[in-house]
Structure formats: C-alpha cells, structure tokens
Amino acid sequence: MAVPSESDNREVTRRIAGLFDPQRHVREIVERSKSSFRWGMSLLPKPGRDAMYAIYSFCRELDDVADEPGEQAEKLARLSEWRKELDRLYEGSPTHPITMALLHPVKLFKLPREEFVRVIEGMESDALGKMWGPPWLNLYEYCRRVAGSVGLLSIHAFREPGPRAAAFAVSLGNA
C-alpha cells in the first residue's frame, strides 16, 4: 500500500473539517502542474475556467496513471476504475474529487461523455507501451484520443461547439 502524499493528507484534513471543495482540488492540480495552459484557462469566464480546470485535471490524472512507473496490469486496472467513475459522473453521483468538479460543467456545457472515454482509451494505449513508427491510421487514432478529444471537450467550455470549431480542434490535436 502506498504512503499518502502530503497533498493526500491535506485533502483528508479538509474533508474532515468539512472544507473539501472539488473546484479547489482541480485548481490546485492545475497550479501544481506549472503548465502554460493554466494562463489561458485563467482568462476564461468563471464557468468556462472551472470546466477547463476540471477537464485538465481529469486528463492530467489519467496521463499520470499511464506514464508513471509500474506494472501494465495495474495501470490498466486503474484506468478501468476511471471508466467506472465516468459512469458515476454521468449518472450524477461521482465519487472522485475531479469528477465531482466535472459534474456541473458536464451539465452546463453538455460535455460529451464519449470524448472522456476517448481520453481513457488513449491513456490505455500509453499504458500498453511506447508506439514506435506506427502506421498512419494508428497514429491518427492515438492523436484523436489523447489530443483531439481534449480539444472537443474544450470547445464546449469555450461555448464554441460548432462544426468548424470541432474540425479545428481535431486538426489541432493531429498537429
């Protein structure tokens, strides 16, 4: 069993004190990541910003599962748990802080479930090992899952879910 990290201990303390805030949790993930994306996300109006922080945190969490050292079977099992958590999210009863933070944005922006599923599928590919010189179709499918899906979720949070924005998001993911 893994030793709880300092951030895990802070989360437990907040929960015990009744101060747990899923939005704070995803905001902290974004801030800890030091990603340049956080600056762009911070410029969005609050509903879009909250949605993007939660989307980013979901992707960051799954990417960490796929990329961290460990047994392939364990990684795939953890990603399978995320599929179950995604089901709970779309049933309205998420249990993980990240999906709790996604609950309102999923409803408000009508975030498509299938794009979250594609993110999981992409991370399953990562967990299976590195791709070296894959055929174009396999590479395209991988890019669509790990990048295009993020773009397609994002355009909803940007309130631009039209066909031109969707085509642009997928093209950007392929790039």
Layout: helices, strands, pairs:
Layout: H1 6-16, H2 22-33, H3 37-42, H4 46-67, H5 72-91, H6 97-109, H7 113-128, H8 136-157, H9 163-174
How would you characterize the overall build of this protein?
The chain is mainly α. It has one domain: Orthogonal Bundle (Farnesyl Diphosphate Synthase), CATH 1.10.600. 77% of the residues lie in helices and 0% in strands. It is built from nine helices and no strands. The chain has helices spanning 6-16, 22-33, 37-42, 46-67, 72-91, 97-109, 113-128, 136-157, 163-174. Helix 2 packs across helix 4, helix 5 packs antiparallel against helix 7 and helix 7 (113-128) runs antiparallel to helix 8 (136-157). The termini are far apart. The mean pLDDT is 88.
Q: What composes the largest sheet?
A: none
Regarding quaternary structure, how should these chains be classified? single chain
Count the DSSP helices. Answer: 9
Uncertain runs are: none
Based on the coordinates given, report the CATH architecture.
Orthogonal Bundle
Rounded radius of gyration (Å): 16 Å
**What is the number of E strands?**
0
CATH class: Mainly Alpha
Can you identify the CATH superfamily?
Farnesyl Diphosphate Synthase
Could you tell me the mean pLDDT?
A: 88
What structural class do you assign from the helix and strand content? mainly alpha
Distance between the termini: 40 Å
* Tally of separate domains: 1
Sketch the topology as an H/E string, one letter per element: HHHHHHHHH
Which strand-content bin applies to the residues? under 5%
Share of helical residues: over 70%
CATH T-level topology: Farnesyl Diphosphate Synthase
**Shape from CA axes?**
globular
